[in-house]
Amino acid sequence: MSLHVVTPKTYVWIFLALMVGTALTVAAAFVDLGAATGFSALNDIVMLAIAVTKAVLVVLFFMHVKYSGRLTALTIVSALVFFALLAGGVLVDYLSRGMVPGHM
Amino acid sequence: MPDGHATAAAAAHPHHHPALQHHFDTLEQQKEASSFGMWVFLVTEIMFFGGLFCAYLIYRGMRYEGFAEASHELDVVLGTVNTAVLIGSSLTMAMAVWAAQTGRRKATVGFLLATGALGLTFLGIKLVEYAEKFHHHHVPGESFHWAGRFPDVAEQFYSLYFAMTGLHAIHMILGIAVLIWLLVPAWRGRFDAAYHNPVEIFGLYWHFVDIVWIFLFPLLYLIGRH
Fold this sequence. Notes:
The structure holds two protein chains of two kinds.
Chain A: H1 8-30, H2 33-37, H3 42-62, H4 70-96
Helix pairs in contact in A: 1-3
Chain B: H1 2-12, H2 27-62, H3 64-71, H4 76-101, H5 105-135, H6 151-187, H7 197-221
Helix pairs in contact in B: 2-3, 2-6, 2-7, 3-6, 4-5, 4-7, 5-6, 6-7
């Protein structure tokens, strides 16, 4: 794999996209999206979706994963899968409490 | 016999780059190994912060109203400004990597200094926010006082707030320490197209800390604001 130099132009575009994302996040927090759609969790989902998009932009461009080998991508994906397994296990426990009558 | 080995390696590769360690065949292999090492470290960091995010998620789900009430005492303006400051520091960090890759010595030093200055600005704003929390007795412990409807939940929210933003701030402080240490080889012009691993992998760390804040900001500052 030869050296891939990402240009300042790309970095500035990503920076601007991240700033727009930040502005959209704050805007999404103050507008009641739930009242308009009847789905009360929509504000949180939109804010988290923007955060995930921003994180992906940082990882792909600032952290050069777009130009790195598969080993790097595999390392990140395995970390996320493992975290999802651990967090998912904990959530299954907490969210299912009280579902069985007579048991906490 | 490390000396003998080095001599043998130098004899085998008479024109090798001074930064090439003897246990690597090429600079490229050395660079991939160091980047991979940093990524593996960042995996452990994801798990480290992940535990706190998981705790946050569970209690927020269970006590949403109290979390929203507590979150409203945080300053959205300062939080937003700090997010912009940190994203700006990621830009200057990325530019420092570019400058190192293209052998621009002064630009490398300059962008690293700018990154450090923005990092310190972030910590300064964080300090103002923390001071305000102490002033209003919103720091968990003996003197915690909450005028709202959910004092117990608010205290728990602020425990998570200080644990998460505190751990993040410690990462920033350590990052700035490493950055200062990096300035020396940068100033001496040690980095070029063939060798810039230290700047590259420090950048990975810095951007990771930025990503953590990208999630902390909406989760802590922007609960039920509408």
